């Protein structure tokens, strides 16, 4: 009871601060001379388009059979070739017995299509997923190399980490696409995934190195005394314990990778950010689109954060 009594003033203070921030944002927005067009946003997620049906030959409409909202149109060519299409009844442009020429419109069919924001989000997701898997593999190998007693292996890993961490990701993407991609004839998708994987891999390597070094040396010595080889002890004893410790920073790195993937838009990969820019170019709905894009990134990263919290709880129970 005392704990509840002690926290309620802070809850009230939090509510006051949030209300104040909301009021400040609302007041700022009202001062902007801007016409909001939120009604346009839904079509960027999914929209209904019309698929046009044309006659593929010179011929005649031999039958039009209506069945409610759809109609079946039968076309016969001069060589007695028969083709049947189904169109929306209200869009029919022909009548039975009418002569047509190749390319003439018969009618339309309304179909639902994914909007550019959904397609861009899908591109962002698969780019981030592939890059994360590659980054984990690169980071694990480099992290093990960083604690290796072999001087050459250790220094090569250290040089890679320092170069990648010491240069901007945007510059690395340009180098991967315009230089390496040109030399090896790589597509922009491959160059983008490679740049993201190498960038995240350097940070994952340091996370793995720190996690392994946080495990007491006695764990390795005990495993070795039981007759296990160095790789066996590392895979079966040290890494499972290190994984529990590095899970939070590791997940944070992959969440950052999802946001960092927006930079691949500079090499014409149509991810979520580039899709937003293209929509703004044609509609000038700047604020609406960027707010929606930000909300979509926030939704994805929040879901991933919740998944990580669940994994942490599960691992805590298994201790």
Describe the protein's architecture and organization.
The chain contains nine helices and six strands; from the N terminus they run H-E-E-E-E-E-E-H-H-H-H-H-H-H-H. Strands 4-3-2-5 form a four-stranded antiparallel sheet, with no helix packed on it. The longest helix is centred in the C-terminal third of the chain and has 33 residues, at 286-318. The chain is of the alpha+beta class and 319 residues long. It folds into two domains: 49-114, Beta Barrel (OB fold (Dihydrolipoamide Acetyltransferase, E2P)), CATH 2.40.50; 116-318, Orthogonal Bundle (MetI-like fold). It has helices at 2-31, 116-146, 151-165, 169-183, 188-213, 217-225, 230-260, 272-283, 286-318, and strands spanning 46-54, 59-67, 70-77, 82-88, 99-100, 105-114. The two termini are 32 Å apart. This is Putative glutamine transport system permease protein GlnP. InterPro entries: AA_ABC_transptr_permease_3TM (IPR010065), ArtM/GltK/GlnP/TcyL/YhdX-like (IPR043429), MetI-like (IPR000515), MetI-like_sf (IPR035906). Belongs to the binding-protein-dependent transport system permease family. HisMQ subfamily.
Order of helices and strands: HEEEEEEHHHHHHHH
**Oligomeric state of this protein:** single chain
Determine the CATH topology of the largest domain: MetI-like fold
Strand numbers in spatial order across the main sheet:
4-3-2-5
Number of strands: 6
Helical content stands at 55-70%
The CATH architecture designation of the largest domain is Orthogonal Bundle
The structural domain count equals: 2
**Backbone shape:** extended
